[in-house]
Structures are given as C-alpha cells and as structure tokens.
Amino acid sequence: MKIGIVGLGLIGGSLGFDLRAAGHEVLGVSRQTATCEQAIALGAVDRASAEFELLSAAEAIFLCTPLGVMPQTAEALVPYLSPAAILTDVGSVKASVVETLEPLWHRFVGGHPMAGKETAGIAAAQAGLFANRPYVLTPTARTDSEAKATLEHLIRALQSNYYECSPAQHDRAVAWISHLPVMASASLIAACQQEPEATTLALAQALASSGFRDTSRVGGGNPALGRMMAQYNREELLRSLQIYRQSIDRCILLIEQHRWDDLERHLTETHQARPQFADKA
Ligand code: NAP
Which residues contact 7 (CB under 8 A, 6 or more apart)? Predict the structure, then answer.
C-alpha cells in the first residue's frame, strides 16, 4: 500500500521503519524540511515533503503530530486526500481527538500505539518499537468498518497486540496506566529534589540505582507530551490522581500508626496485582 505519515517524530518515524519493512511505500510529511531530509536519510520514509500534496495518492495516512496541533493539521490535510483514503491518528488521548477529527473525514478511525520512549524527534525513531506492544483502535458507531479492518491488518503486521475500545473507555484506562504514572513519577523526582541538605541530596543522587531508574523513568520523559496528556485527558487524569492520593494517604496512616501487619498485607496485595498489569511483554 501507499502509506502517508504526517509528523515525522518518534512515533511517525518508527511507524515508517516498520511499514517500509512490511513492504509498503511510505510517504512522509513534516513541518521542517530538515526533518524530512533526515527521515529519508535514516530510511524511515521513501519520500518526504513539507507539502501535503505528496499524500494525494496515499491509501492510509497516520497522523503523528503532537496532540495540540492535530485538529488544524487534519483540516489542512483533508483537501489533499483521495476519496477512498483512510485516516488514523496515534494520539495518546482519544475522546477529544476522535470528536474533532471524525466529522472531518468519512474514513477516519482513532488509534493509539502503546509504545514510546523518553526521547522525541525523528532521531529517536526506531524499528520494532511496536512489536509485542498493545495498539488500540477506538471506533465509534460512525466508523467505516472496511477502513477499520484495513488498519487492523496493518497494525497486526507491525507485530502489535491489537485491541478495540470506545474513545472514552480508552481515556479512562490509559489515565491509570500511562497518564497517572507520568504524574506520579514526576512527583517522585520533585519530592526527592526537595531534600534541603545539599550533601544528602548529592549522596541520594549518587546512590540511586535500578529501583529509582525504573520508578522515575516516565516522570523524566518528554514534558510537552505529559502536558498534552493532562490537558486533553484532564477529567480522567484528575480522577486517577485523586484515588492515587488516597492510596498514598493510606500508606502514611499505616506507617504513622506502626501498623506493620496491615502495611505488609497492603504490599502483598500490590505484589500479587502487579503481574496483571506488567511483565506480559
Ligand atoms: P515527536 O517525537 O515530538 O514528533 C512529533 C513530530 O510532529 C515532530 O517531529 C514535528 O516534526 C511534527 N510537527 C508537526 N507540526 C508540529 C507542531 N505544530 N509542533 C511540533 N511538532 C510538530 O512526538 P511523538 O512522541 O512522536 O508524539 C507524536 C504523537 O504520538 C502525539 O500525538 C502523541 O500523543 C502520540 N504518542 C506518543 C507516544 C510517546 O511515548 N512518545 C506514544 C504513543 C503515542 P518537525 O520536526 O517537522 O517539526
């Protein structure tokens, strides 16, 4: 197929590598000419341009820009699409994106590959990023079923684990396992930074090892992406943060009251629950 990618960054570039490897012709459009040139040089796309005209023959287009510019990017792109073209996006939040993009194009299907890195931009793109990771499509009652089936086929060829759910269900679920962890992890780093004694802070930084590396990883990621998650999934993120705060308060209470058996019971429950969320890939 002829595949279009708009926004040649971490996700767009990584999709380009894998779709090309699967035998598709990949046409990239990005804001900066330098990014287009880099994407060609790296092998993420066959051809690239700063002009949407390049995508006039594309059969499926992945919108991979930051969330905040998706509506205007889609509006500018639509006049160039061929009538049967399928449009999808990779945004980390779905309800607001689907609500805005669905009325713009009759063959639009929202999507979200659940894979990423802390680094951004085309230089961070890598082949195989989506293999063995979830990739969810968020169809609605208006979704064209043939367009969805074609995307499902493309996604399965990336070796991704395919899922479907509504945009609202997606946003509530990812608030728990993606957006809350970013805020919790950032808060952990911010709390450590509040150690008032300079020598103790320096010692903590020097002694930090694998446990801190794992728990601080997503909090030390792309700030613009974290902002977008909060801005566009505000209600669901606030809901999960409030429940998380209750969870921390419970830990404080158990420790303040020397309730060590209750604390161990609590940690036994989390120890048992973790494999249901992690260690699957
Ligand atoms: P990124 O690395 O920053 O790439 C986005 C690219 O979009 C940039 O390289 C930029 O290319 C282009 N762009 C076009 N218009 C832009 C504008 N007005 N402002 C800034 N950049 C613009 O970001 P990403 O991590 O790939 O994220 C892209 C999308 O994937 C987002 O919607 C995000 O929610 C979603 N997503 C991200 C992750 C993750 O972990 N990173 C995971 C899943 C989904 P130029 O260089 O040409 O300006």
Answer: 29, 30, 31, 63, 64, 65, 66, 73
